[in-house]
Design goal:
Chain A: One of its GO terms (cellular component) is glutamyl-tRNA(Gln) amidotransferase complex. Chain A: Belongs to the amidase family. GatA subfamily. Chain A: Residues 24-466 form the Amidase domain. The complex is a heterodimer of chains A (492) and B (476). Chain A is an alpha/beta fold and 492 residues long. Chain A has a domain at 3-254 and 461-490: Amidase signature (AS) domain (Amidase signature (AS) enzymes), CATH 3.90.1300. Chain A has 17 helices and 13 strands. An 11-stranded mixed beta sheet of chain A has the order 1-3-2-6-8-7-12-13-11-9-10, with helices on both faces. The two termini of chain A are 19 Å apart. Chain B has 476 residues and is an alpha+beta fold. Chain B is 40% helix and 20% strand. Chain B has 15 helices and 17 strands. In chain B, the strands form 4 sheets. In chain B, strands 1, 2, 6, 7, 8, 11, 12, 13, 14 and 15 form a 10-stranded mixed beta sheet that branches. In chain B, 38% of the residues are buried. The chains are: A alpha/beta (492), B alpha+beta (476).
Chain lengths: 492, 476
């Protein structure tokens, strides 16, 4: 039995009934990582010893018949912008190359409470700014389906780690599509929860009003399982919402007969790869076959979303990243003779190009004299985009779209051209601006590369999108072959 | 040429909530360096603020006390700038929607009360503190980082250093009254920045505004303003233009020194704090705060006049600070004469406090002790003058008046037999005075009483001495 090919829920079942031990599971994954990580480069930090220790602890609990959490014994990879006490949290930046947080993010506390095993920290675009992990100070994560292609970003490390069977579950984070887009590129499932559903405490802020932690997994069940563990009101995050706990696994079983689905024409424009569109439309047929009612709709403010997103996100980022000043933690330049130089040189040397670009843009849009023209106007546009969604969800249960307008691109193709890189977020940013929830689920391959179907739901309608995704997943009629199964072809 | 001085203030006052504005760390002053800290007030990556409701409440209290409008919906904003004592690279403060707008503080002037308008009161977080190490480097202490502040901004309504002092005293007293701040300038829990310029009244020519910082006491505020007032008038006289600048008060050399010239307004790139949600303030909450507000100085003054039947002036002085007012009320409990208590407190007690630059809280004796002293005088056990001596002893030693009187044998001689002997002796030695008295010089009697007091080192009951002298003279 090859443990690394099992889904998270299968692992859970086998661990709980004593068929396998958590230690065996963790060892299998560590072996797998040992074997292929040099090719994938999904991780920045691995925590082998602690992971094994934690696994033994879970095994002991199970042996003793003690109560264990919903993630008992399952290895989980964590995006490296989520604070882990005692374990480096670099945000993919030279600035935090040696930063070890003294505290756990709330989501990490929750995972530990549920007996999940944290196996390591995954690569990402620097401070989550990017769509390919190429802005990472440390490495570029390869797409397990084609090592010349990007894994997507910014949570590319988490997505690739799952696709390469280095872990069954992972946490990523989204500001403008950073979970869904790499999930789409790597052929895994990734969810952006409703803003406020998951605590942001301990997640290094990029854009506070947009950031949200999201789970990635091989399948929809894995997403529901991890979501069950990480949701809940957190008094340490003022933007977290008080809401009754939901069992997302339970929601999966219902059918989707009569569900009303809208296809926004703006998401199927000429800018979207025809082959990608084709795969989405095939998925639509599957859903129709399951009893869903599908109609074309319009989200008229879509065309302003990308501009709006980059103003809001960069404005907030310019302020959020001010704390990296070389004074209290993180990188400090050797080259300074006064305070001004300490700041300037630390930030010039510690941040990469993309981060600096966004800080500059963000500083500009918040400047007096420009604030009204940019930041304030962007906030007004944001309200219009929210209204687009609000109105749509009065009539429809779900909005369907491609996750990415393009297939995974070659490493190096877009890194010198920021605008074309930003364009790869064009179909995901609206969801973050509106604060609603969405996931990406694999819907087939084009030229051997995965395509993701984006399923968007209203705020706190995670049950609905998970249910639809699950029904689709069970009936899509596509052989989803994790690239791990084709290791010889890939030379892995 | 007539000149008009124009002064406005920006006051920061630390609020005495138990915990900081955005985390659970204690606000206690002092403590070992960097021990009152957590990820939030250290600005560690990923840490998020959660607003302390008490801070909003204290801000509302101040707004009510200063007659401000309280916002029904407000928000926190980020003020972005770099400084080592500012952990996040931004301070969470309030920009365009302050918690409280408008309001005033009334100061007493010779020609009646004057309203100094308040522009706004907002809540914000304090920064850490730079500490200079022995080797010349800078160290940082973040115990103060995240301690809640209110910032009170006045309109430029003050026209003299004296008026500023009056205003600050009123402000301080009120903040103490409403129990939101312990307003200690020395500990930095009250900080005051001043803006001053002078206008030549006839021509309307103005100097550029100077901002003054590093003012550590009310006295420093007054001295610095006096210095600046003179400097600005001198500039006008000489027809010189000055730059808009920030100066600091140098206490050693009694002068202000340029810190920096202001080139245009700093751009703090304010924007709404996205880590916090809007603050909605319900009418009922404001009302319950209003209802539970401790008695304000003005109300207390009115009550003192009615309850203790003391003049308005006395009531005004006694209610200047809540501690003084409490001291008065406590002392009155032990005395039958509230006006007498007021005289003593306004006279000998306050004089000594002012001379020594201490506060009523720092006294070595209690209100009960003072009450006991006054009771001794009322009951004729000691004279007024002995009473003053005893009070001096109380200031120095903190001993109770009865102990001092006993130790020093100061009990008044009210025993006729004992006093008669002394009186007879005095009369025998002053035959001339008796003659004078008999010849109609009434002053002679006073002289004789004085001699008796001298003989008894002040312990004779003067009324009794008077009576005995007259009796003996009559017998002659």
């Amino acid at each position: 039995m090859d443990l690394i090919n099992l889904s998270a829920t299968e692992l859970r079942r086998k661990i709980l009934n004593g068929e396998i031990s958590s230690k065996e599971v963790v060892e299998s994954y560590l072996d797998r990582i040992e074997k292929i990580e040099d090719n994938i480069e999904a991780f920045i930090t691995l925590d082998r010893e602690e992971a094994l220790k934690a696994a033994e602890e879970v095994d002991r609990k199970i042996e003793n018949g003690d109560k264990v959490g919903v993630l008992a014994g399952i290895p989980i990879a964590i995006k490296d912008n989520i604070s882990t006490s005692g374990l480096k949290t670099t945000c993919g930046s030279k600035m935090l190359e040696n930063y070890i947080p003294p505290y756990d993010a709330t989501v990490i506390e929750n995972i530990k409470k549920e007996d999940g095993i944290i196996i390591g920290k995954t690569n990402m675009d620097e401070f989550a700014m990017g769509s390919s992990t190429e802005t990472s100070y440390f490495k570029t994560t390869k797409n397990p389906y084609d090592l010349n292609k990007v894994s997507g970003g910014s949570s590319g490390g988490s997505a690739a780690a799952i696709a390469a069977c280095e872990v069954p579950l992972a946490l990523g984070s989204e500001t403008g599509g950073s979970v869904r887009q790499p999930a789409s590129f790597c052929g895994v499932v990734g969810l952006k929860p409703t803003y406020g559903l998951v605590s942001r405490y301990g997640v290094v802020s990029y854009a506070s009003s947009l950031d949200q932690v999201g789970p990635l997994a091989k399948d929809v069940e894995g997403i529901a399982l991890l979501l069950n563990a990480i949701t809940g009101y957190d008094e340490k995050d003022s933007t977290s919402i008080k809401k009754d706990k939901v069992d997302y696994l339970k929601a999966l079983d219902e059918d989707i007969k009569g569900m009303k689905i809208g296809l926004p024409k703006e998401y199927f424009s000429e800018n979207v790869d025809e082959k990608v569109k084709g795969k989405i439309l095939e998925a639509v047929e599957v859903l129709k076959g399951l009893g869903a009612e599908v109609e074309e709709i319009s989200l008229p403010y879509t065309e302003y979303a990308l501009a709006c997103y980059y103003i809001v996100a960069n404005g907030e980022a310019s302020s959020n990243l001010s704390r990296f000043d070389g004074v209290n933690f993180g990188y400090r330049t050797d080259d300074y003779s006064n305070l001004e130089e300490l700041y300037t040189n630390t930030r010039s040397e510690g941040f990469g190009e993309e981060v600096k670009r966004r800080i500059m843009v963000g500083t500009y849009v918040l400047s007096s004299g420009y604030y009204d023209e940019y930041y304030k106007k962007a906030q007004q546009v944001r309200t219009l985009i929210k209204n687009d969604f609000k109105k749509t969800f009065e009539k429809y249960d779900i909005i369907l779209a491609p996750t990415s307008p393009i297939l995974p691109f070659n490493i190096g193709d877009k890194i010198e051209d920021p605008l074309s890189m930003y364009m790869s977020d064009v179909l995901t940013v609206s969801v973050n601006l509106a604060g609603v929830c969405a996931l990406s689920v694999p819907c087939g391959y084009v030229e051997g590369l995965p395509v993701g179907l984006q399923i968007i739901g209203d705020s706190f309608e995670e049950e609905k999108i998970l249910k639809l995704a699950y029904n689709y997943e069970q009936n899509r009629g596509i052989d989803i072959e994790m690239p791990s199964l084709r290791s010889e072809e890939n030379g892995l | 040429m007539a000149y008009k001085t124009i002064i406005g203030l920006e006051i920061h006052s630390e609020l005495m909530t138990n915990s900081k504005i955005f985390c659970n760390c204690t606000t206690e002053f002092g403590g070992d360096i960097n021990t009152h800290c957590c990820p939030v007030c250290l600005g560690l990556p990923g840490a998020l603020p959660v607003i302390n409701k008490k801070v909003v409440e204290y801000g509302i209290r101040a707004g009510i006390a200063f007659h401000s409008d309280i916002a029904r919906e407000t928000k926190m904003d980020r003020k972005n700038y770099f400084y080592p004592d500012l952990v996040k690279g931004y301070q969470i403060s309030q920009d365009n929607i302050p918690l409280c707008s408008g309001g005033f503080i009334e100061v007493e002037k010779e020609d009646g009360p004057k309203e100094i308008r308040i522009r706004r009161i907002h809540i914000e977080e304090d920064t850490g503190k730079s500490v200079h190490s022995e080797d010349g480097g800078s160290l940082l202490d973040y115990n103060r980082s995240g301690v809640p502040l209110i910032e009170i901004v006045t309109e430029p309504d003050m026209n003299s250093p004296e008026e500023v002092k009056e205003f600050l005293e009123k402000l301080k007293a009120t903040l103490e009254y409403i129990e939101v701040s312990d307003v200690k300038m020395e500990e930095g829990s009250l900080r005051c920045d001043v803006n001053i310029n002078v206008v030549e009244e006839e021509t309307g020519v103005k100097t550029s505004i100077t901002e003054l910082k590093n003012l550590n006491s009310f006295k420093a505020v007054v001295k610095a303003l006096e210095y600046e007032e003179k400097r600005h008038i001198e500039l006008l006289k000489e027809g010189k233009e000055n730059l808009k600048e920030t100066r600091r008060w140098d206490e050693v050399n009694n002068e202000t020194i340029v810190m920096r010239v202001k080139e245009g307004a700093a751009d703090y790139r304010y924007f709404p704090e996205p880590d916090l949600v809007k603050i909605e303030i319900e009418e009922e909450w404001i009302e319950s705060i209003r209802k539970n507000l401790p008695e304000l100085p003005h109300d207390k003054k009115e009550r003192f006049m009615k309850e203790y039947d003391i003049p308005e002036y006395d009531a005004g002085v006694l209610t200047q600070s809540k501690y003084l007012a409490a001291f008065y009320e406590e002392t009155v409990k032990y005395s039958d004469d509230p006006k007498q208590v007021s005289n003593w407190i306004m006279g000998d007690v306050l004089r000594r406090i002012n001379d020594e630059e201490i506060e009523i809280k720092d006294l070595k004796f209690t209100s009960k002790d003072l009450g006991e002293l006054l009771k001794l005088i009322e009951d004729g056990k000691i004279s007024n003058n002995i009473g003053k001596k005893v009070l001096r002893d109380m200031f120095d030693t903190g001993k109770s008046p009865s102990t001092i009187v006993k130790e020093k044998g100061l009990i008044q001689i009210s025993d006729e037999g004992a006093l008669k002997e002394i009186v007879e002796k005095v009369i025998k030695n002053n035959e001339q005075s008796i003659m004078d008295y008999k010849n109609g010089k009434n002053r002679a009697l006073g002289f004789l009483v004085g001699q008796v007091m001298k003989e008894t080192r002040g312990k004779a009951n003067p009324q009794l001495a008077n009576k005995l002298i007259l009796e003996i003279i009559d017998e002659k």
